[in-house]
Amino acid sequence: MDFRKRFVAKKKSFRLTDHDPDDTAGFDDEAVAGEQARENTQKLEKLQSVLYAEHKRAILIVLQGMDAAGKDGTIKHVMSGVNPQGCQVTAFKQPSHEELDHDFLWRIHKAMPPRGDIGIFNRSHYEDVLVVRVHNLAPKEVWSDRFRQIREFEDMLYRNQVVILKFFLNISKAEQEKRFQARVGDPDRNWKSSDADFTERKFWSEYQDAYQDAIQKTSRAHAPWYVIPSNHKWFRNMAISAIIVDAMKELNLRYPVLPEAKKPTGKPA
Ligand code: AMP
Ligand code: MG
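Above: inputs. Below: predicted complex with magnesium ion.
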């Protein structure tokens, strides 16, 4: 199955409501999907090792979604085979005073993966057109111009050999409630919850509108958004890992070939 084709957000016609968070693309066997996800993880490990050796391109993976959508879980599962040397995860929280004194992309640009690396953003520059919009943290004139700024920024990255893959982890409101309750009742996981999560939930439909707009305005062939049905964690892991593998395969990554004169002879120079 070509998960990229199935889940990519097509720019003009994109409607978030057309995407079912419960969709499993015909898969119904969790064990089979789990096996496939593991195979993808192994492929990813090999691809990453060539990416690192080639040292020409960087991969940027952007993860967005409502609270409890599974951003942390995706990182844990999908990247489990990846060599930590060559991969970095950045979680974007509320901006610091210093960050607020700069343009909104300043902290983002600083966190970009260098050539040869995979960078994962747990939240991203998209928060500046999501939470900022929903809570009026900036006037409309300010956040609405950011769609263009984001497109231009991502164009620039693309022209500098950064491969951008953006994932929206699509869960339903009912699934979020279920996950919140499970967290509250679990002493090992209730640290992840706060009363603020329950307050944010009140803004569910405002967030859906903001996501709809952000995805519609910034999904392009060279910086696509994938809307991943995420009510089922096993499906989410399989689909995301498959998309990353397919995108990396397409790069035709190659180990560097040394010119004859530079090949090591195994003797002191
Ligand atoms: P978490 O991902 O659960 O650790 O929460 C991080 C929090 O930081 C979320 O509530 C985000 O909405 C918030 N956040 C991230 N980026 C921004 C931003 N640019 N402006 C305001 N809040 C942000
Ligand atoms: Mg949270």
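The domain at 3-251 is CATH 3.40.50.300 (Rossmann fold).
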